[in-house]
Amino acid sequence: MRAALMYGAGDVRVETVADAAIEEPTDAVVRVVVACVCGSDLHPYRGMPASEQGTPMGHEFVGVVEETGSSVAGVAPGDLVIAPFAWSDGTCDFCREGLHTSCRHGGFFSAAQAEAVRVPQADGTLVKVPSDVDPAVLPSLLTLSDVYGTGYHAAHQGGVDARTSVTVIGDGAVGLLAVLSAKQRGAERIILMGRHKDRTDLGRDFGATDVVAERGEAGIEAVRELTGGDGTHVVLEAVGLRAAYDMAVGVVRPGGTISRVGVPQYADAPIGFASLFGPNVTLTGGPAPARAYIERLLPDVLDGTVDPGRVFDRTVDLDGVPEGYRAMNDREALKVLVRP
């Protein structure tokens, strides 16, 4: 089969690799219908050391089950399924607590930009959807694999509800779907910090009431001005850079919560008296247990109440994946859909 491999920063190639195959009785093989390039994929695209051994890429996909292991009972060949970006058994204590990303028998996908994927722990991982779903809904179903679930996780962990004001930092796909999620959870004041008008316009469609294009201290000052000097109850940080964290600290209200879902590209950041301790600020977030949210979010996607698939603004085939990376890295595309 064919798959996308990364050989170093800026070097993505589509090559022939070994076919995905059953290795354990709990496995399934899924033929990919739609996959995508994630904003988090851009971190290695910008900084991975060159290597002679290519690294398989991609962790979001919707597809059709082709084969199942002998102990798989929940899905069968021919089923259309959503795969969250982490596999999990669905039965361990962490899964029962809704923290599938810490499953005792789980892990993270990293080879979904391909024609097919081996799925461990298929019964606990895959979510079956109607096989006759309108093909136009497939991009929105794909967001449930990661970016919609991640945006929702940010809002959930932040405790967003009707009483909270919210700042969302980042106008990428996760940030925009954090706006949508905050709106769904009842927030009436949602400030989106982003500087790309086509993206922030979509953010307004999703529920943002205000847009702040400034960054750094100017951005912090603008949010403070919008909130009477206090900042917002909740800040959803969807970038992962230290500068975004610093802005989050600058715009959170005393007693508020910073919920981080941008994969952090730093190890050191202020958490002392002046930043978090003194104003009683809570810091939370982490990799989203997307599997825990799929059943909650799926009905509104299927009936058209929400259309999170609008974050996809370019489509490529498998051969076009290297160009998709380039387009996202150069900010020519928000999020690239892949149809193998």
TrEMBL record:
Entry keyword Oxidoreductase: yes
InterPro entries in UniProt: ADH-like_C (IPR013149), ADH-like_N (IPR013154), ADH_Zn_CS (IPR002328), ER (IPR020843), GroES-like_sf (IPR011032), NAD(P)-bd_dom_sf (IPR036291)
UniProt entry tagged with the keyword Oxidoreductase: yes
PROSITE patterns, A to Z: ADH_ZINC
Keywords in alphabetical order: Metal-binding, Oxidoreductase, Zinc
Matches recorded under Pfam families: ADH_N, ADH_zinc_N
GO molecular function annotation: oxidoreductase activity; zinc ion binding
UniProt domain Enoyl reductase (ER): residue ranges: 10-338
SMART domains for this protein: PKS_ER
Cofactor dependency: Zn(2+)
Recorded family membership: Belongs to the zinc-containing alcohol dehydrogenase family.
Name of protein: Threonine dehydrogenase-like Zn-dependent dehydrogenase
Organism listed in the record: Mumia flava
